[in-house]
Amino acid sequence: MSLLRRWERQSCRLTVACLIAAGVVAIPASEAWAQTSDALILGVKLQAGGRWDRVRMCVGSPPGAEGGPAFDISFFVEKGIAEERTFIVDVPVMRPILFGAAFDMLQLEPAVGFNFRGRLSDDIDWVGGPRLGVTLHYGPDYRSGLSGEERLPSFFALGPRFGGYLGLDFLRPDEVFNFQLGLHPYLSPLIAVDDPEHHSGTVAGGMLEGVFRFTADP
Hints:
- The chain is an alpha+beta fold.
- The protein has a single domain, classed as Porin, CATH 2.40.160.20.
- It has helices spanning 3-26, 94-103, and strands spanning 40-52, 68-82, 85-92, 106-108, 111-121, 124-139, 155-170, 177-193, 200-215.
- An 8-stranded antiparallel barrel has the order 1-2-3-5-6-7-8-9.
- Helix 1 (3-26) packs antiparallel against helix 2.
- The radius of gyration is 19 Å and the shape is elongated.
């Protein structure tokens, strides 16, 4: 079995597990939501934006376009480590599954980060913090078409992903979940692995994130 297919199968398993976990959290009756120093949060992020990218093929842009639109859905776990501070582990699932199944590509960008928060009003907090992740790529470069003779050879590339997050948290004390809306800019220098053409470059982009957060604590 190819490495790409193994990635695809593992991503499918992760998606099912996260959906079950989110459903278990959402089933109980509504309880007051609160951000405590040891709170455990499970959540879903809907992301949409764009990027400048002279390394990877963009399935939403014509061959030769240096970048294009970017979309993803991710699941995350957020753990309180101190009052008004949390640690986050974020795993995207839409692009790894979709790109693997439809385009024989891999684009996976898991990340960790910290969030700090402060009160703006009785029902709105500001939230922000750094993000650090890794970008994993398998597929052709930005000059490639999707299929046929226009499809160029695939290659592996990887690199760190540096970013940040700043958003508004709309508190819902009497509901199962609360909602955040924020911006996530990032930079990711990529270097190809075992690639005759030695692809390299820096990806720069930004995402608008809609974040649904469910408390997992009783």
